[in-house]
Amino acid sequence: MQISGAQMVIEALIAEGVDTVFGYPGGAIMNVYDEIYKQNSFHHILTRHEQAAVHAAEGYSKASGKVGVALITSGPGFTNAVTGLADAYMDSIPLVVISGQVPMSLIGTDAFQEIDAVGISRSCTKHNYLVTDASDLPRILKEAFYIAASGRPGPVHVDIPKDVTAQIAEFDYSIELNLETYKPHVKGNPRQIKKAMEAIAKAKRPIFYLGGGIVNSNAAYEVRDLVHATGIPAVETFMARGVLSHDDDLLISMLGMHGSYAANMAMSETDLVIGLGARFDDRVTGKLSEFAKNAGVIHVDIDPASISKLVKADFPIVGDVKNVVKEMLESVSLINPTKYEAWRETIRNFEELHPLTYHEDSDRLKPQWVIQRVGELLGDGANISTDVGQHQMWTAQFYPFTRPRQWISSGGLGTMGFGFPAAMGVKVASPDKISINFTGDGSILMNCQELMTAVEKKIPVINIILNNNYLGMVRQWQTLFYNKRHSQTDLSVQPDFVKLAEAFGGIGYRVHTKEEFDAALRDAVEKNIVTFIEVIVERLENVMPMVPAGGSLFNMMLLEKKEKK
Amino acid sequence: MQDESARRVISVIVVNEASVLSRITDLFSGRGYNITSLTVAPIPDSRYSRLTIVTSGSIRVIEQITKQLHKLIPVLKVYEHADLVEKEMALMKFPISENITDIATLCAAYNGKIVNVGDNVFIAMVADEPKRVENLLKIISKYNPKEIVRSGAVALER
Ligand SMILES: Cc1ncc(C[n+]2csc(CCOP(=O)(O)OP(=O)(O)O)c2C)c(N)n1
Ligand SMILES: [Mg+2]
């Protein structure tokens, strides 16, 4: 059929089964918005900032496993969205972000709201396109969705000049894609898998090192089967929280900079690392030359470039984790699960020596208590997003995750301002679960304008602000490594968070005690409106344990031991 | 261990489309790899172009470059072979007062010749293995070349 470029965008989104688009209009994208006005096949959610539109699309994608979609205008609309693109790129989140561009005839003239969008997005997207003819649009949009979701997922950016959205051309979305140069390797090499299984059978102290790729490939339940069938203990990366349930006997906990003592010690003493969809990044490995020093390495990843990038793999397996783990399960009888009892005992001793805990030794509430409490009260019933800082690390440490896609946090880029819009996207994707955003008094002010979106669209995100009157994570580093010179991190001057929420039509609570917190959370869940629960917490609490940047995993700063009060 | 800064030649076959070259050069600059030389031209009768990139780094770095290049969507193939036929061209401009016979003889030994003679200057060319071109350029310096331009290497695996 002959339709305009703008209509093609709508038709393609419908054909891809998109039910929600997050966006913000402007001059260059108006033709597309005009078509949005005329259709009712999918919802459009008007965020109040383009960055938030992309983060909401990320949250939506992470919770649903589908491709997230955001729509923005040229120039400042696009540049506002760049942080979201970069965030999705670092965390391998499949997105299609469509931006308007000035008309073809004006490109290169420094026209009003012109910016070289594809030039900017090149280094923070999996792929990008500048569409120069509407007849290319069906193919480009179809490729964009395919590239975003396949292989190692990531954001794809499509920049469409205004005259191209007005141009009439033939639309046929049933075309076959012919991507001769892009063929992700999804099936692992069976010989390599066999060899890896034999290596596992021979190992004395093997360990599963589970990464976020497992969540992306929807392989968590296969991985659970593999872990249970082998009896081999597992550590999770920050991105992999929820792959195993928190109460799984074989889950040691998170590893890395703020990982548990037991997880980091187990990683240091293992003789075989079985990496599944994890990328050995610096926050995980600490000092590389000391990381799992005496261990062999099996590395399963869909991205060949992730393998042997930082840690040399003895058994590299390129493939989709789900396929590879299924194939591993077929020869799982090679492995004797009773063999590792002594190893598991060693790890239990590490856990008992320095458990992941905190002291309730202040008048103010401890932030860790708040997180644990939400876990007790809501547990599996909530999806958990966070912003970035201490509260984020405590959430990763203390929330009792039970399932994949329950945990939504900006790991790779560490974007303050991610949490609230992401939690909106999560709620839209998963309306039956309560959507919590654990945030800080610093982070929440980046994107607090989204209160308006949440009120308008009735998206009842519960934002729990762990208020320590500090840019706490930076303050912690200043305390520990800059001789307590707390440069520009004191947030004593603050808005009234209760009134702030109310000003937009949301609900605000300020709580100081455990009783007040329980009451506020209960009320927030009942009210089903967007809320801020501001919890006044201990100001100088540090996230412990901690591997100082560049240090070795086995050299952790630990929580001071104290007698229980 | 291989020398950290060992010279490597990488050939990349890419779809001939807008901005593909910047995808490649962005990857090098973004990840801190260096480019010694880069040549690119379309492959006859196809929708592809061939790039020849001369770079340097340890085996580990080159392996990473190769994989990262491969990840770019429009990249079809990446070759990192040791067994290559490599050629590079150089053009050299001399004042007319220099000994043109000597220079012509020298260039001939490097698959070259005098290609242009004007009132004040003449231009010579050579085309040979990059190492040999390097060598010639050293020798030729005593003839006071006014300008030298090198093409960068092109290569084909054997
Ligand atoms: C956009 C952005 N700017 C700066 C930083 C650096 N940074 C990391 S954590 C942090 C402090 C966050 O403070 P808050 O939200 O109050 O959380 P807390 O650490 O106090 O829990 C800062 C400034 C960042 N991660 N993102
Ligand atoms: Mg704070």
Overview of the structural elements:
The complex is a heterodimer of chains A (565) and B (158). With 565 residues, chain A is α/β, with parallel strands linked by helices. Chain A is built from 21 helices and 20 strands. In chain A, helix 1 packs across helix 2, helix 3 crosses helix 17 and helix 11 (261-269) runs antiparallel to helix 14 (341-353). Chain A is globular. Chain B is α+β, with helices and mostly antiparallel strands and 158 residues long. Chain B folds into 2 domains: 2-82, Alpha-Beta Plaits, CATH 3.30.70.260; 85-157, ACT-like. Chain A, domain 2 (Alpha-Beta Plaits). Helix content of chain B is 28%, strand content 42%. Chain B has 4 helices and 8 strands; from the N terminus they run βαββαββαββαβ. Chain B has helices at 20-30, 59-71, 100-108, 130-140, and strands spanning 7-15, 35-42, 48-56, 75-79, 84-95, 113-117, 121-128, 147-157. In chain B, strands 2-3-1-4 form a 4-stranded antiparallel beta sheet, covered by helices on one side. A 4-stranded antiparallel beta sheet of chain B has the order 6-7-5-8. The relative contact order of chain B is 0.20. Classes of the chains: A alpha/beta (565), B alpha+beta (158). The A-B interface holds A 118-119, 122-123, 126-127, 130, 132, 147, 179-182, 303-305, 308-309 and B 14-15, 18-19, 22-23, 26, 30, 60, 63-64, 67-68, 70-71, 73-76. The structure holds thiamine diphosphate (TPP) and magnesium ion. The site of magnesium ion has 8 residues of chain A, from loops.
